[in-house]
Specification:
This protein has one domain. It is built from one helix and five strands, in the order E-E-E-H-E-E. The protein has one helix spanning 27-35; strands at 7-8, 11-12, 15-21, 39-40, 53-59. The strands form two sheets. It has a three-stranded antiparallel beta sheet with strand order 3-5-4, covered by helices on one side. The protein has a two-stranded antiparallel ribbon with strand order 1-2. It is flat. The chain starts with 6 loop residues before the first strand and ends in a 5-residue tail after the last strand.
C-alpha cells in the first residue's frame, strides 16, 4: 500500500480513516491496514459504534 497527501486548491489531508468489519473474513484486511501503519480509532463521520465495525486511522502529518 502506498499513501500520499493530496494538495488541491490549498487542501492538505492530515489523516486517512477507514472502517472495516470485525468478522473473521476481514482479518486479512485489518492486518494489511495495521502493517501499513493504521491504528485503532473511534467512529467518524456518520458511523456509530458497533460490534460489527472496526475503525482505523493513519496520520499523514510528519512528526519530529
Amino acid at each position: 500500500m502506498t499513501f500520499f497527501s493530496v494538495r488541491e486548491a490549498g487542501v492538505v489531508f492530515g489523516r486517512v480513516s477507514l472502517e472495516t468489519g470485525t468478522m473473521r473474513e476481514f482479518a486479512l484486511a485489518r492486518r494489511l491496514y495495521e502493517r501499513a501503519g493504521f491504528l485503532p480509532c473511534g467512529p467518524f463521520g456518520d458511523y456509530k459504534p458497533s460490534p460489527h465495525n472496526t475503525f482505523m486511522t493513519l496520520s499523514l502529518v510528519a512528526t519530529r
